[in-house]
Design goal:
heterodimer; A: mainly alpha; 3 domains; 7 strands; globular; B: alpha/beta; Alkaline Phosphatase, subunit A; 2 domains; two-stranded antiparallel sheet; 12 helices; about 35% helix; about 15% strand
């Protein structure tokens, strides 16, 4: 919209309500507000405390435990943070303005409600789970076959308010052709092999690294070697086979309840229908036939149980909060770590009874209420974002030293923000450009991908990332100020005041206005260069190459 | 995690210390400013400056040994492939490798490599890292380990470069960090992606200045800003450095270019030599297409034709420049192929027996390690396991195989677990 209008009012008249923008905001937000209301109603069916009450409880506990309340971040920082966390892009200038002018004391909660109802919320987190699952793939083909479908499958569920237990169940019990059933992604990424599936199911849904017990009893945990293999015994009948004559090539996950007709144990279907725990002394031997037992509750199945029954039973036991708290705790810990920047445990996927937990009472409050809401994902987001810990510059007092709320953006977010800043969609016409855009997204995925389960301090910037952002011919063309149809060319044509140009570039790139010092550095640069367009290109280039652009603060 | 962090720091600290010693002027040592142990360390660091490098010629897909290094003499499994004599009496290779045959004095052949992994991805991972992939431990590839141990800072160029299209390879820095990922260079005939400036040099420098200035006061944690800035410094140092000329093959005399040949793989080999000369520690050159399930004989003939001349030329060239003594060249793929020819005239995956060629960096050429059965189906003498191979790399490249890195779960991971270097090679 008219950024200049906002900037002019900021610069000249000070904060006063801008009526047209306010109206626009109402029009834009109205449908979201309704959707948000609907969400709140579904939550009520399940019970569980109101998110504000729980957030206050957490604030009180943390204040007690850590000796004081951290400083609150300002509105612009909060808004950027919430947008980046929920929908993966920064708010546009007019959103920032509308938010800053809003006097409603509940505006922070309201904006979260609106963003949770935005379809980009599901899309952003669908991609997150795609990255989590495919980062540890044992089969390269999974990337090509199921990347898109996996993100879409999760996105659709999240946008339809699917509960976390439902999503987990869908992953564990998935079947069908992999391109149209993205939830088969976890099984496909592990090639349908029981050991890999077991490791990933326990890691992702329980936060337990039971695969360390594959060859020996877990060295630092209570898990026994048998327990790993008993869990693997839920999956020996998961089959993956090519779909005949499929174009493009496709595979399907199916239940392998019978051996091949010949019954000679040869050919593709030669794998046994039961799981055999390998004999460590004699790896060539067939091993010990093993019954499915869920290690956390002791529930078991008989040999001969059909594939779907095995996997459904496991999904039931795994998500049953009465007997297994780790399913809820793993999700709460992961989301808290993502949003706050520092978890209750050192790792998002290595928790469990013998791991050291910081602020266990806060984790319990969250997990218990998350269970009471029926694993309502939206409720958990709202609650965590409403805490003082989220809305502060330093995540938690007494947290791990050196922790900050600042986090590197994932590759899709870097790409989408670049697209937004440079208004690439405005110049894109027709299908060819959409295809090109997806190709460009892949280039960013290659350069910026990281495994979201790793601690953030292990994610380092790389040389190919720097080279891409600095030298990519496409990016450099798109940030030109003297080319028809670019964002900068439009801005320079519409705005003569360089102060406002600089402010606009900061709002677009970093979601905030420049500090006095930053403004004067930029203005000096424009003054020193004779060519205004070139000077502004340099500023835009520099902002896109700063650490701040690539991070959520 | 606290423990893990401390250990990481110590480890990284040691690296820095060694670098520090390497840059100390000899005068400081002579002036007695250093302790005895520091002097020892300095001597070690200086020795390294004669330093080792490695070129891995990676035959992606798994080359058939029988049509390359290990022909089957007079057995039906060998098909129509004939063998030829080499410059070393008693050693014969497949007829498709006349150049390598002529250079056999420099090559040692291992004909008894054996593993159990017959899946491309997993086997490629295994032969790059010495370990099978697991979801939890991100094992680093040998190139990353070499970059870490042999010097990250020897040149403005990245220490680890991977040349060619390699869709299957997802191994790199692993737990050592993204800074040890290979610098991927897909097309050796052109400059690497995004290394050409978008503006003139002066303006580029101005932009870098402005970037640094604007970033300095940004509200981002100091550590984050430092590593971001350091990465930008490294990247720009690289693209502005004269060493970038190493990527420009047109600077090479025609006669040398002709000696390597014309294929992409030939350009890759020539580039590998230029990079090693410029101080790069580990270069991988990929050649795809060895997955010959059908029509094995035509395809391997053609592929062998592509790799034979450049591989031999590379050895000769390195030797002439005095670089072969410090550069290990390895020619191999992820596994072998079934000795029995299938119905489509192809050979399928067969990890039980496969071959590799090695030259340089202390490897005694003109010899064969191990033997396979006459039908090519099994190793009958001197089996060499993947860990044995990695111990051998460590010996040749002067890497410490015992050196440990810490996985994200706090488990110490050695460069190689088990295995013994193949002593006869040295």
């Amino acid at each position: 919209m008219k950024i200049q209008c906002f900037l002019l009012t900021l610069a000249e008249t000070g904060p006063k309500t801008s009526l047209p923008l306010f109206l626009l905001g109402v029009i834009l937000y109205f449908p979201w507000a309704i959707a948000g209301f609907a969400t709140a109603q579904t939550t009520a069916e399940y019970g569980g405390s109101d998110f504000k009450t729980v957030a206050k409880q957490i604030d009180a506990r943390l204040a007690e435990a850590t000796d004081g309340v951290p400083d609150e971040i300002d509105d612009a920082t909060f808004l950027s943070r919430a947008w980046l966390d929920l929908v993966g892009i920064r708010p546009a200038a007019n959103e920032i303005e509308a938010f800053q002018r809003d006097n409603n004391p509940h505006k922070r909660n309201d904006v979260v409600q609106q963003l949770l109802a935005d379809s980009r919320f599901g899309q952003h987190w669908g991609r997150y789970w795609r990255d989590v699952i495919l980062a540890r793939r044992a089969d390269e083909r999974a990337l090509r076959l199921v990347s898109e479908g996996l993100a879409a499958a999760v996105a659709e569920r999240i946008n339809h308010n699917a509960r976390w237990d439902q999503i987990a169940t869908d992953f564990i019990t998935a079947s069908g052709d992999v391109r149209s059933h993205g939830e088969t992604g976890l099984l496909l990424a592990q090639k349908g092999e029981p050991e890999g599936i077991t490791a990933e199911v326990a890691r992702i849904f329980l936060g337990i690294q039971i695969q360390c017990a594959q060859c020996h009893d877990h060295p630092t945990d209570q898990w026994k070697r048998e327990q790993f293999h008993q869990l693997a015994a839920f999956f020996p009948r998961v089959g993956i086979r090519p779909v005949r004559n499929s174009q493009p090539r496709n595979f399907e996950v199916y239940s392998r309840n019978h051996k091949n007709k010949k019954g000679d144990g040869k050919g593709k279907n030669k794998k046994p229908l039961e799981y055999f725990m390998p004999n460590l002394e004699n790896p060539e031997a067939s091993g010990l036939i093993t019954k499915p037992v869920f290690f956390l509750t002791g529930h078991s199945l008989e040999l001969g149980t059909a594939d779907q029954d095995r996997r459904e039973a496991l999904a039931n036991w795994l998500t049953d909060a009465e007997e297994n708290p780790w399913f809820a705790r793993a999700y709460v810990n992961r989301l808290w770590t993502e949003l706050i920047g520092d978890g209750f445990y050192d790792s998002v996927d290595d928790i469990g009874p013998e791991r050291n937990c910081r602020h266990p009472e806060v984790l319990s409050i969250l997990a218990e209420n998350f269970i009471a809401t029926g694993y309502d994902i939206n409720w958990l987001f709202q609650t965590i974002i409403a805490t003082a810990a989220y809305q502060s510059a330093m995540p938690m007092h007494g947290a791990t030293i050196g922790t900050t709320a600042s986090q590197p953006l994932r590759s899709d977010a870097v790409f989408d923000n670049l697209v937004q800043v440079l208004e690439i969609d405005r110049s894109a016409k027709g299908r060819g450009n959409k295809k090109q855009k997806e190709k460009a997204r892949q280039v960013f995925q290659q350069a910026f991908f990281y495994d979201p389960s790793l601690p953030r301090d292990e994610i380092n910037p790389t040389i190919p990332q720097a080279l891409l952002m600095m030298n990519s011919r496409q990016i450099n063309q798109l940030l030109r100020g003297d080319r028809r149809g670019t964002m900068l060319a439009r801005l320079l044509a519409e705005q003569e005041d360089n102060t406002l140009v600089v402010a606009s570039l900061y709002l677009r790139c970093l979601g905030r206005l420049p500090t006095d010092q930053e403004r004067s550095t930029c203005l000096k640069h424009i003054k020193a260069r004779k060519n205004r367009s070139e000077a502004c290109e340099d500023i835009l280039w520099s902002l896109l190459n700063t650490a701040e652009f690539r991070r959520r603060n | 995690m606290k423990i893990r962090r401390t250990q990481m720091t110590i480890e990284r600290g040691q690296v820095r210390r060694r670098d520090f010693l390497r840059t100390l002027p000899t005068a400081a040592m002579a002036a007695g400013m250093l302790s005895w142990s520091d002097r020892l360390a300095l001597a070690a660091a200086q020795n390294k400056s004669s330093h080792r490098a490695c070129i891995l010629l990676w035959m992606a897909g798994g080359p058939s040994p029988y049509e390359t290094l290990s022909p089957l003499e007079g057995h039906g499994n060998g098909g129509n492939t004939k063998s030829i004599s080499t410059s070393v009496p008693g050693i014969r290779v497949a007829e498709h490798l006349p150049h390598i045959a002529a250079q056999m004095n420099d090559f040692a052949l291992i004909r008894s490599l054996t593993s159990k992994e017959g899946n491309h991805n997993r086997a490629s991972f295994l032969l790059h890292t010495g370990y099978l992939p697991t979801p939890t431990v991100k094992y680093p590839s040998l190139g990353a380990v070499a970059a870490l141990q042999l010097g990250e800072k020897r040149t403005a160029l990245p220490p680890f470069v991977r040349i060619g299209r390699s869709t299957r390879l997802r191994v790199g820095g692993g737990l050592l960090g993204t800074q040890f990922d290979p610098f991927a260079h897909r097309d050796p005939k052109n400059p690497p992606g995004n290394t050409e400036l978008a503006t003139d040099t002066n303006r580029y420098r101005r932009r870098l200045n402005l970037l640094a200035q604007l970033q300095e006061t940004q509200n981002v944690a100091a550590g984050v800003k430092d590593s971001h800035q350091a990465t930008y410094n490294k990247a720009s140092r690289m693209i502005l450095s004269p060493e970038m000329r190493a990527f420009d093959l047109s600077l090479e005399p025609k006669q040398i270019r002709d000696a390597y040949g014309n294929s992409d793989f030939a350009s890759g080999c020539l580039l590998a030599r230029r990079l090693v000369e410029a101080g790069v520690t580990f270069v991988e050159v990929n050649c795809r297409g060895w997955d010959t399930h059908q029509d094995n004989f035509t395809k391997t003939h053609e592929l062998a034709g592509q790799v034979d001349q450049p591989t031999a030329a590379l050895i000769k060239d390195l030797k002439q420049r005095g670089l072969l003594d410090s550069t290990l060249v390895v020619w191999m793929g992820e596994f072998g192929r079934t000795p029995k020819i299938n119905a489509r005239g192809g050979r399928d995956h067969y990890p039980r027996v496969f071959s590799a060629a090695m030259a340089g960096a202390g490897i005694r050429g003109g010899q064969v390690i191990g033997r396979m059965s006459d039908d090519g189906s099994q190793v009958v003498d001197r089996p060499v396991s993947v860990p044995d191979l990695f111990q051998t790399y460590c010996r040749s490249l002067e890497l410490d195989p015992e050196s440990e890195s810490i996985s994200s779960l706090g488990r110490p991971i050695k460069v190689v677990e088990e295995g013994k270097a193949v002593e006869e090679l040295f």
